[in-house]
Amino acid sequence: MSARDLLPLILVLAVLAALPFLGLSGSALNFLVTTLIIALAGLGWNVLGGFGGQYSFGHAAFFGTGAYATAVLQMKFGWNAWGALGAGIGLGALVGLAIGYLSFRAGLRGSYFALVTLAFAEVFRILANTADITGGAAGLLLPLRPGVASLQFADRRLFYLLVLAFVGVALLASRWLERSRFGAHLIAVRENEEAARALGVDALSVKLRAIALSAAITAAAGGLYVQYFLYLDAGVAYGTWISVEALLAPIVGGIGTAFGPLVGALALQGLGEVTKHLAGGIPGVDLVVFGACLIAVIAFAPQGLLGLRRRRRTVPVGA
Amino acid sequence: MLAVDSLTKRFQGLVAVDRASLGVPAGSITGLIGPNGAGKTTLFGMISGFLPPSEGRVLFEGEDVTAEAPHLRARRGIARTFQIVQPFAGLTVAENIAVGAYLRHPRRADAVAKAREVGLRVGLGDQLDKPASDLTVAGRKRLEVARALATEPRLLLLDEVLAGLNPSEIRDILPVVRAIRDGGVTILMIEHIMQAVMTLCEEVFVLAQGKMIASGPPRQVCADPHVIEAYLGKGAAARMKAEEIAHA
Ligand SMILES: Nc1ncnc2c1ncn2[C@@H]1O[C@H](COP(=O)(O)OP(=O)(O)O)[C@@H](O)[C@H]1O
Ligand SMILES: [Mg+2]
Q1: Quick check: is B194 in a domain?
Q2: Helix, strand, coil: what percent of chain B each, to 5?
Q3: Which is one GO molecular function term here (chain A) (predicted)?
Q4: Does B126 reside within a domain?
Q5: The domain spanning residue B201 has which CATH number?
Q6: Residue ranges lining ligand 1, Cβ < 6 Å
Q7: What is the DSSP string of B194-212?
């Protein structure tokens, strides 16, 4: 990757890094952290769904695994937070590999793959809701223990910067997909698997590597989530809410593009926040707005918000 | 270079290919002809690894590759085009070709340079940055050839790349095929257009109802009564012979 490829990424990260130092309120900072965590989950979904064309409806399986591993390893096994988060990311990747192996080996695609991922997430949710180690239905409450080792900062802006760093790494990975052989293979499998195989692409291995990377990124989002809110139950960790958020952000922002999930998460969360303020009393009104947005995007801007801008210029591949 | 040994493919009850054998010498352009539904595409599918044969073997450069996956055969140097073109519709022409070029060029800059060079070679030079979905039928056929060629194959399998083209487009693409061979790539081509087979191929094999019924230099094969009957129906050869005598 050349410096020119990275310039937009650096600019975006710089602006986002500066935001919390402009005197934001606590709730505004909360909003930003949540939005970035969702963007991160969406960046993960986008690797497999956007670049690879394998639409998962169950990324909660990875989000929840990252979250539970981060919490449980600290609470029940005495790990420090960083190690637990790292292990959560690794475990998420393994769960991704396992689900990928079972579904892709069986040749599942399209809605069948979506349904299988959804089923896995639901099974995990039910298991987590009953098992002892996950705290069952009561959930887990991480003890308050401020300090760098326990990843709990007195100044929440530091945590925001940590999440932003993860978003930066995920953006970098996405940028790499747009510029590398692996990414080209993944996109080729999305566009036409048979033609890709004829050109020497090992489609199964490409999809497995993609789902592992995708799951790892979304698991990181889960680990950061529990580390920020210090509370977790099965509905939060493995609930459909996060599966939906993770796929809506890239679809609304620009599916299969590096910045799509970030743009989509900012737009959707921002819109949700605004509607909550305007129509605060009506429960679930933000969900209605979500649904309306999705319909509008699919009908009028199938390439997402970034696609609206891109439509007017085509990028030559050699540039 | 390629030896197909008694390949059979059964789809449920239907025998699509029935103990067919053929050989392709290195450096040749060899033709595979036969009526529609004869099993030609099915035979290509077994040579390139997309269809597992029911019986028989495929040997490439002396090695048995019968059980090998398509992508491994591509790495060995077997490339194919699809009769029903399969472009990566969402990508540009150059990006399409680059997927093939990545097989031997892991670095993006090299793969893209290779893709542009191959695109130029097959006559897609001024369309490289267009979306592949904007190409005409003739353009898509060229793209099939370009993508396969970008993998730098030793054996190129062309499945009816001339079908659907008009005479002037065919005239333009024939030299491209010959230039590919002259560049050191062995070619096995399925073709319906006899004129093209006559001018390009040194040897042709004829498949009819799954069986290999004739082989030899194109002129000789076309005069073979079995071949005429396969194309025109039973008794056709005798009728033509009778007409010839009547005219003489
Ligand atoms: N996947 C398949 N399943 C069942 N029958 C098939 C399949 N593919 C091809 N056939 C049948 O096999 C025969 C040979 O087809 P094909 O190889 O496409 O012929 P050709 O390329 O010579 O026109 C045809 O009768 C076709 O209907
Ligand atoms: Mg055919």
Answers
A1: yes
A2: 45, 25, 30
A3: branched-chain amino acid transmembrane transporter activity
A4: no
A5: 3.40.50.300
A6: B 11, 14, 16, 34, 36-42
A7: HHHHHHH-SEEEEEETTEE
Ligand index nearest the alpha carbon of residue B17:
1
**Distance (Å) from CA B34 to ligand 1 centroid:** 13
Q: Report how far apart, in Å, the C-alpha atoms of A68 and of each of A164, A219, A234, B219 are.
A: 21, 10, 9, 74
Q: What is the pLDDT of residues A76-131, one digit of tens each?
A: 999 999 999 999 999 999 999 999 999 999 989 889 999 999 999 999 999 999 99
Ligand showing the shortest atom-to-Cα distance for residue B52: 1
The residue nearest atom 26 of ligand 1, judged by CA position, is B37
Q: Is residue B211 part of a domain?
A: yes
Would B97 be classed as within a structural domain?
A: no
- Tokens coding A108: 């599942």
Which domains are assigned to chain A? 28-308 (1.10.3470)
CA-to-CA distance for B76 and B72, rounded, in angstroms? 6
Query: What SS3 state is found at A79?
Result: coil
Torsion A103-A108-A112-A114 (CA) sign: positive
Q: Do A180 and B108 touch (CB under 8 A)?
A: yes
CA atoms within a 13 Å half-sphere pointing along the CA-CB vector of A34: 15
Residue nearest to atom 6 of ligand 1 (CA): B11
Domain count, chain B: 1
φ/ψ (deg, to 5) at B214: -165, 160
Share of residues in chain A with pLDDT > 70 (%): 96
Q: Which residue has the tokens 């679930």?
A: A284
Residues from chain B contacting residue A180 (CB–CB below 8 Å): 108
Range of the domain at B37: 2-85+152-247
Contact B193, B29 (CB under 8 A): no
Judged by a CB distance cut-off of 8 A, whether residue A3 touches chain B is: no
Q: Give the pLDDT of residue B134.
A: 95
Residue B71 is nearest to which of A197, A314, A316, comparing CB atoms?
A: A197
ipTM: 0.91
Over residues B74-86, the pLDDT tens digits come to 999 999 999 999 9
Residue A113, C-beta contacts closer than 8 angstroms, at least 6 positions apart: A54, A55, A56, A103
Is pLDDT of B232 > 80? Answer: no
Residues B102-142: pLDDT tens digits? 999 999 999 999 999 999 999 999 999 999 999 999 999 99
d(CA A220, CA A294): 26
Ligand 1: centre distance to CA A45 (Å): 39
Please tell me which residue of chain A has the smallest CA distance to B73.
A200
Q: Distance between CA B139 and CA B172 in Å, rounded?
A: 12
Q: Which amino acid is at B136?
A: T
Mutate to test the pocket of ligand 1, among B10, B14, B18, B209 (most ligand atoms within 8 A of CB): B14
- What is the B99 CA–ligand 2 centroid distance (Å)? 25
Surrounding residues of ion ligand 2, Cβ less than 5 A: B 40-41, 83
Residues of B in contact with A317 (CB under 8 A): 92, 94-95, 98, 112, 115, 128-129
B87, B94, B107: residue with CB nearest A317: B94
Tokens of A151: 């990843």
